[in-house]
């Protein structure tokens, strides 16, 4: 039985070229980038080259990139770092009800420290209202954190419009772009974002490495203290092998960006067409347009999500009921609750399929057939 992995929004397999790059670095470049001898200088060169590639990928400068252990640390550093740096100007934060838990739980911690948080609602497609954001803005608002693309339903927020709204406000604008990076083109200057979080393992890079973009001139209180790495913003010896692997993953993603988007969109159409042909009763959660091409969240009316996932797993299909960080939880997805309410059937009947490296058209055709068979069996 061929196993089909369609949970790339949770994590993605390492690209073969990334593995080769990392192995080479681990075998040959063990120096500490902070050392001044030749071994250290070679390691530093690898880090600097990677930083340049990452900066160019979002139209930033090298000094605006801070390496982190991943998206969660980047989100934490952005929110706590800004709040601590600008607390004399206010203690009000604005975010959304559908953020990743790396943002939501950080905001909960900040509330315990005396900050006030406004959680913006979303409509039934998962989009916030810019008008609601405008109404929520106050003179003491110091940070607005709105995720770029949702990890569960794929909805893309109006980031450019929000950036324009905040351009002349004191609030710093942070966006969690973990699911968007490597899928959509990003220009931080065009979007007018001040901080942006990214993780490597969503784009076929290694786990345990990411970055936070921080616009030049913005103050940030560090969360980790020690050495003077990352311009004194994030202490700790750099993970050179992971950073080199991250660079390779970004170069590949940038080259294949347009091709992948078209490919993933064709997979969505294939699944929809097959379900229609088989008369499967389903609903797409989120928008059909203005959504991330690799994420497809589907509700199957009358189907229990846990039974569905077990049957899919037995058939060799790896999918998800939502965020990997809440997998195994009996609680319904906070994203779907925000979109449809606590009483909606959809919060108990929805499955997320997310596409990526090594998925083929033949696999997706087989996926559609397997899902249709299971849905019909469970309905009986």
TrEMBL record:
InterPro entries reported in the protein's UniProt record: Aminotrans_V_dom, Aminotrans_V_PyrdxlP_BS, Cysteine_dSase, PyrdxlP-dep_Trfase, PyrdxlP-dep_Trfase_major, PyrdxlP-dep_Trfase_small
Domain of life: Bacteria
Reaction equation(s) it catalyzes: (sulfur carrier)-H + L-cysteine = (sulfur carrier)-SH + L-alanine
Names of the cofactor(s): pyridoxal 5'-phosphate
Protein keywords: Iron, Iron-sulfur, Metal-binding, Pyridoxal phosphate, Transferase
Key word Iron-sulfur present: yes
PANTHER family in alphabetical order: CYSTEINE DESULFURASE, CYSTEINE DESULFURYLASE FAMILY MEMBER
Assigned protein family: Belongs to the class-V pyridoxal-phosphate-dependent aminotransferase family. NifS/IscS subfamily.
Protein name from the UniProt record: cysteine desulfurase
Record organism: Bacillus aquiflavi
């Amino acid at each position: 039985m061929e196993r089909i992995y369609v949970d790339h929004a949770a994590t993605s397999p390492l690209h073969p070229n990334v593995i080769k790059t990392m192995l080479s670095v681990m075998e040959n470049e063990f120096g500490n980038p902070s050392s001044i001898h030749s071994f250290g200088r070679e390691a530093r060169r690898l880090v600097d080259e990677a930083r340049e590639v990452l900066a160019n990928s979002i139209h930033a400068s090298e000094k605006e990139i801070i390496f982190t252990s991943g998206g969660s640390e980047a989100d934490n550093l952005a929110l706590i770092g800004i709040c601590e740096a600008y607390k004399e100007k206010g203690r009000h934060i604005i975010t959304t009800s559908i953020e990743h838990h790396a943002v939501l739980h950080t905001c909960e911690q900040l509330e315990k420290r005396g900050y006030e948080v406004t959680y913006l609602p979303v409509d039934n497609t998962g989009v916030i209202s810019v008008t609601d954001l405008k109404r929520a803005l106050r003179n003491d608002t110091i940070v607005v954190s709105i995720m770029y693309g949702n990890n569960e339903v794929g909805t893309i927020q109006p980031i450019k419009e929000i950036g324009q709204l905040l351009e002349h406000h004191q609030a710093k604008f942070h966006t969690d772009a973990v699911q968007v990076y490597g899928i959509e083109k990003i220009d931080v200057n065009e979007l007018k974002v001040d901080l942006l979080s990214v993780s490597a393992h969503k784009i076929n890079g290694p786990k345990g490495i990411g970055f936070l973009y921080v616009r030049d001139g913005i103050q940030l209180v560090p969360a980790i203290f020690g050495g003077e790495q990352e311009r004194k913003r994030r202490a700790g010896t750099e993970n050179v092998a992971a950073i080199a692997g991250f660079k390779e993953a970004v170069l590949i993603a940038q080259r294949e960006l347009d091709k992948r988007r078209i490919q993933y969109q064709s997979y969505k159409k294939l699944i929809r067409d097959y379900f229609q042909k088989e008369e499967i009763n389903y609903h797409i959660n989120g928008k059909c347009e203005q959504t991330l091409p690799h994420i497809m969240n589907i509700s199957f009316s009358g189907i229990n999500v846990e039974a569905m996932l077990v049957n899919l797993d037995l058939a060799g299909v790896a999918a998800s009921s939502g965020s990997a960080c809440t997998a195994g939880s009996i609680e319904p997805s906070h994203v779907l609750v925000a979109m449809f309410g606590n009483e909606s059937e959809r919060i108990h009947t929805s499955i997320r399929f997310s596409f990526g490296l090594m998925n083929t058209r033949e696999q997706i055709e087989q996926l559609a057939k397997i899902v249709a068979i299971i849905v019909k069996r469970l309905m009986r």
